[in-house]
Every structure is written in structure tokens, then in C-alpha cells.
Automatic annotation (TrEMBL):
Assigned keywords, A-Z: ATP-binding, Hydrolase, Nucleotide-binding
PANTHER family in UniProt: 5-OXOPROLINASE SUBUNIT B
Domain (Carboxyltransferase): residue spans on this chain: 1-197
Lineage: Bacteria, Pseudomonadati, Bacteroidota, Cytophagia, Cytophagales
InterPro entries per record: CT_C_D, Cyclophilin-like_dom_sf, PxpB
Name this polypeptide is given: Allophanate hydrolase subunit 1
Alphabetized GO MF terms: ATP binding; hydrolase activity
Ranges annotated as spanning the membrane: none
Name of one Pfam family that matches: CT_C_D
Amino acid sequence: MNFERISERTVYMALSESIFRVEEVQRWMSYLESLNQENVIEIIPSFSGVAIEFSRFVSNDVIDRILIGYRDYNIESKVAVSSERWEIEVLYTGEDLEELAKSKSLSVQELIQIHSSVEYTVGMIGFTPGFPYLIGLPEELHTPRRAVPRRVVKKGAVAIGGVQAGIYPQDSPGGWHILGYSDFPLFNKDMQPPTPLKVGDKVKFIPS
């Protein structure tokens, strides 16, 4: 485990060289929140690490103490890691549904069944505000992103790209394959927190 300075006030704690270390990131989040550091503005999780934004410059000694505290802390027994389970309805009418099914030698209904049969884990929130990167896409549906991204992907698009699934919270450019649409609210700047999903949460898609 090591850290990297992103700016004078932001430090990235790299937990592992491999990605999808969701449970370890959750434990780190819980540990950092338990410290109640007054000068911490925000804690931002990623697939394999945590970025910490401070209100002012912090010395390497302070960061080292945080790292030592994490190593010495009995994470399993003293920090509770919690997650919520969400059921998200999807209308499977996406622009890429038929073409993708054909490329996988599946019927449309078979593709829908595979996509909606598993429980996904929120690995990270990013790209655009509220966009959930979902881990757990069945191997049968792993597929490269579109060769030519769309200039506009509509809000609510449920899509897959590479080995992940996701949902577009706003109209935005995007290169993932669109399977359907959902009206599940993913981001509201006037709410706190602004997105209901968090790293470690479980998501189940329900065909509507």
C-alpha cells in the first residue's frame, strides 16, 4: 500500500495493483470516516484505491500516520462494512440490443435473461456525476465498446462495455452498448448525498 499526491491537498491511497477490490475499498472508506478528520473535505473511492481531499496541505507525516493506523486497525471486527440492495426496472428497448444479441448468437430474450439474472456490485461512481460502474457482468456478455462512440447517449440508458455494466445518469457522449432504459434517479445535486448508490451496493435489474 502506498500513496501518491495528486495535488497539494489531494492524496490517492493505492490499495492494490489489481482492480475490483471493492470490499477493501469499503473498509478503507469506513476507516477514514471513523477518524473524523476535520480537514477532510471528501473521500472518493475508485476500483482499487481511495482519494482524500483535504481542506489544506497535509504533510507526509500525517499521511503516514493514517496508513499506519489502517495497518494496525482490526478492520474486520471494528469497522462495519455495509451495503444496500437496489432493484432497478429496465425497459429493454435499447438501440444495440438486437445487434448485440446477434453478435453473441443469442436471441434478444436470452440476452435480456442473462443480463438481468445476476446481482451486480457498484465498483465505482464516476465518468459523469452518478454514473455507476457495475461489476459482475456475465462472461457471455463481455464485449468491446462501440468502435464509434455516440455523441449523445440519453439519460437512463442501461448499457454494457468491456466487462462492466452501467447506467447513464444524464445525456452525455458514450461508447457502451445500450440495452434498455430506466427512470431510476441516479443523481440530484440538491440531495445529500447527491447519488443514492455507493461503492459496494448491490444492483439487480428487473425487466419491465
